[in-house]
Design a protein that fits this description.
Elements: H1 3-7, E1 13-17, E2 26-31, E3 39-43, E4 48-52, E5 57-60, E6 75-81, E7 84-92, E8 104-108, E9 116-119, E10 137-139, E11 147-150, E12 156-159, E13 167-168, E14 196-201, E15 215-219, E16 226-229, E17 237-238, E18 247-253, E19 258-264, E20 275-281, E21 286-289, E22 304-311, E23 314-323, E24 336-339, E25 347-348, E26 354-356, E27 379-381, E28 389-392, E29 397-400, E30 413-416, E31 426-430, E32 438-442, E33 447-451, E34 458-461, E35 469-476, E36 479-488, E37 500-503, E38 511-512, E39 525-528, E40 535-538, E41 545-547, E42 555-556, E43 565-569, E44 577-581, E45 587-590, E46 598-599, E47 611-614, E48 622-626, E49 629-633, E50 641-643, E51 647-655, E52 664-671, E53 674-680, E54 688-689, E55 700-705, E56 713-717, E57 722-727
Parallel strand pairs: 26-30
Antiparallel strand pairs: 1-57, 2-3, 3-4, 4-5, 6-7, 7-8, 8-9, 10-11, 11-12, 12-13, 14-15, 15-16, 16-17, 18-19, 19-20, 20-21, 22-23, 23-24, 24-25, 27-28, 28-29, 29-30, 31-32, 32-33, 33-34, 35-36, 36-37, 37-38, 39-40, 40-41, 41-42, 43-44, 44-45, 45-46, 47-48, 48-49, 49-50, 51-52, 52-53, 53-54, ...
Length: 728
């Protein structure tokens, strides 16, 4: 066997997710009405998942999306074909911005194992205002080749060939759905167009019809918002007697032809200051206000309604979720309501339910219990088991199998049901030489330290202090139990005022910084000297500073330019730091623990630095990526050598060497016009791709090799958490 074969390079890697269990907004859950156990979930930035009822976990079905197509990781809508349980559709596009490239509607004929991608002439916003609304993509239950899609700013569209080609429905009205900016002078998500929020087919009356004749569509406007077609979607008219003043959010149709609609003053999910729930009997043409608890904005009870579900076996059984109620004093937060009489009376079941968070301990955020959740737009009742229900939140999925207990005056029991879903957005990633396998700083929920050897079974959330975003992480090479992290404030909570913390036990527990260089210091990058004696911090929009007393005080670094910097410490020689201009070519060197920097004689041979990393055990060895390619230095940035073989490299990582040689290099780049992850055991003389077309994982934020296990690569993604690969 050759040395190359022994390393596993050029051979298939096995890719897995580190199980933090959840971490992002579950914007929709769809069950198949005729195939038991078939269920899908969509997320705003992390792709889509398929439920495995036997294993009680979710499988990712969009890992084929690569960096070049990362816009597809935002799922605008999801639909199943009632006539074919194998077929599923995804509407993909994270932001409604033409500069990112076209959105797409994808069809799978094998439950998400393979996909046909059809680019479309309208935009999508899977991570924009109203992303919890839905579902705006719908399949005719009578004719599976007929689909409708409600766009954000281009009206209603129809496909007659299973989503391959699309034509605009000229008979649908054009309505402006973007709100006036409530915060003039700065950006506000409410100015984004939301458009058509849902399309629903009515129960078919004449079974001989080749297509469903009656459809309903909701538009995100406080004016006339509900429209009906009685000619299979060709022409549309406003529904008479409909409520006005609020925007339709979600809708479900009962088997008796009653359309239940949740409303909000805003499209959500960020804010909602008023709302209601209405039932519309499609046979009699009558609306009924069935709101469980009416909001009262004038007296501080500001909230709306979001997720809504109907029991397929009992059309009188309805569930609905509030939205933004946690900001209304005295309410205890959002609530789930259940009705057994089509909304004439309601039972509050959410807050008094019991929640088992053992699968995702981080959901307690350092407390003893997990709360009900927020952003509850995804809500379904199992069409084959009325005791089962699922709801998504901004952080996870909760499921119950004893929903009927509430009808007996008992509490429902909910369990965290997001195993397999990893929607965190890691912003920083390190793998120290001892202790934790990997430590990930994430957006929104601070981050995690992962232990447990090769199995990665112990995941500890970063609490006390908790940051909103952890943007910088580093450790002391010679004392890796010392970890330093920096990040940003968030959520406007008193306990979230810190932006820096350190650990002396490898990330299991944390202490707040003793002081800060300024009140505004936050985010940015951090580097720790190999001996841990000094910490270098380049905060966002502020000059770089250094501490020599474990954050008790900070002093300015002399000789560094203003502007974004990438800072790294030499992994072999204590007190040596390197700093690189993010938007220029300058490279700087410090040998006095970060007190002073000097610009090295030879600048980087290219501009637009994307990543830089120092090599453990090798003094003066640094690898840097710029727009023009990959470069390395072995003399502390005095001279640079271009390393050929890869195009448009974006990330670089260092791992354990093979057979005592040079540490393994990992890179994210392109070759032959295709995205890939690559490794090299010979200092970049040869590169071997270690992933394939099914394992792309969308946007990559950071990577790190593992210095403890040869061949292992950790990848921080833009919405799929941290994935890791081992050679087979």
């Amino acid at each position: 066997m050759s040395a190359l074969a022994a390393t596993g390079q050029g051979h298939r890697y096995t890719w897995r997710s580190i199980e933090m269990v959840g971490g992002g907004f579950i914007s929709g859950i769809v069950t198949h009405p005729r195939a038991q156990g078939v269920m899908y979930a969509r997320t705003d930035v992390g792709g889509a998942y398929r439920w495995d009822a036997t294993r009680e976990r979710w499988d990712a079905i969009t890992d084929w999306i690569g960096q070049s197509d990362w816009r597809y990781t935002g799922v605008e809508s999801l639909a199943v074909d009632a006539s074919d349980p194998e077929r599923v559709y995804l509407a993909l596009g994270i932001y409604n911005q033409p500069r990112l490239g076209p959105a797409a509607i994808c069809r799978s004929n094998d439950r998400g194992e393979s996909w046909h991608v059809a680019q479309v002439p309208f935009g999508m916003g899977g991570n924009e205002a109203g992303r919890g609304c839905g579902e705006r993509l719908s399949v005719d239950p009578t004719c599976g080749d007929v689909l409708f899609f409600g766009s954000r700013d281009s009206g209603l569209w129809r496909s007659g060939d299973g989503g391959v080609h699309w034509a605009r429905v000229d008979g649908f009205p054009e309505i402006e759905t973007a709100m006036d900016n409530p915060t003039p002078g700065r950006w506000n998500y409410l100015t984004q167009a939301v458009g058509v929020t849902f399309v629903i087919f009515a129960p078919q009356q004449a079974r001989s019809e080749a297509r469903t004749q009656r459809l309903y569509a909701g538009v995100s406007t406080p004016g006339t918002s509900l429209f009906c077609s009685t000619d299979a979607g060709t022409t549309w008219e406003p529904v008479a007697g409909q409520p006005v003043g609020l925007r339709p959010i979600r809708a479900v149709m009962s088997s008796k032809g009653v359309l239940f609609i949740s409303y909000g003053r805003e499209p959500g999910p960020n804010t909602m200051f008023d709302g209601a729930v209405y039932a519309y009997d499609t046979e009699t043409g009558r609306f009924a206000n069935v709101t469980p608890i009416p909001p009262d904005p004038e007296h501080g009870q500001t909230f709306g309604y979001a997720g809504i579900a109907v029991d397929a076996a009992n059309p009188e059984c309805i569930m609905v979720a509030t939205a933004y109620r946690g900001h209304a004093p005295g309410t205890g937060g959002d609530e789930l309501f259940r009705s057994l009489d089509s909304g004439r009376s309601w039972n509050a079941i959410g807050q008094r339910g019991r929640r088992d968070h053992r699968r995702a301990p981080w959901l307690c955020f350092g407390g003893d219990e997990a709360h009900l959740g927020h952003w509850m737009y995804a809500l379904v009742i199992d069409p084959f088991d009325s005791n089962k229900a699922y709801y998504g939140t901004g952080q996870t999925i909760w499921g119950t199998s004893n929903l009927g207990a509430v009808d007996r005056g008992e509490s429902s029991e909910w369990i965290a049901q997001a195993r397999g879903i990893e929607e965190t957005v890691p912003l920083a990633l390190v793998s120290p030489p001892r202790g934790a396998a990997v430590i990930a700083g994430t957006g929104d929920i601070s981050g995690f330290a992962v232990f447990g050897g090769d199995a990665l079974t112990e995941v500890i959330a970063m609490h006390q202090p908790t940051f909103k975003d952890t943007t910088g992480l580093d450790f002391a090479e010679h004392d890796p139990a010392l970890i330093v992290r920096v990040g940003g404030r968030g959520w406007n909570r008193e306990r979230d005022r810190d932006t820096g913390a350190f650990s002396v036990d490898g990330g299991r527990t944390w202490s707040r910084f003793g002081a800060y260089p300024s009140e505004a210091a936050n985010e940015g990058q951090v580097a720790v000297s190999a001996d841990g004696a000094s910490w270098l911090w380049a905060p966002k929009d502020e000059p770089a500073v250094v501490s020599r007393d474990w954050s008790a005080s900070w002093q300015p670094c002399h000789g560094l330019p203003n502007g974004p910097l990438r800072v790294v410490s030499d992994r072999a020689r204590a007190g040596v730091y390197y700093a690189f201009e993010r938007q220029g070519r300058g490279a700087f060197w410090s040998t006095d623990g970060g007190a002073t920097f000097v610009e090295v004689g030879t600048p980087l041979p290219g501009s637009g630095l994307t990543d830089a990393v120092a090599v453990f055990g090798r003094e003066g060895h640094v690898w840097a990526l710029v727009e023009q390619g990959l470069h390395c230095t072995t003399d502390g940035a005095a001279h640079w050598r271009e390393v050929p073989g890869l195009v448009r490299p974006s990330h670089i990582g260092i791992g354990k060497p093979f057979d005592g040689g040079y540490p393994t290099l990992f890179a994210v780049a392109q070759r032959d016009g295709k995205d890939g992850f690559f490794s090299s055991i010979d200092q970049g003389q040869s590169w071997h791709q270690i992933n394939d077309g099914r394992h792309q994982f969308g946007q990559v934020r950071a990577i790190s090799g593992d210095p403890k296990r040869f061949g292992r690569l950790y990848v921080a993604t833009g919405g799929r958490g941290v994935v890791y690969g081992d050679h087979a």
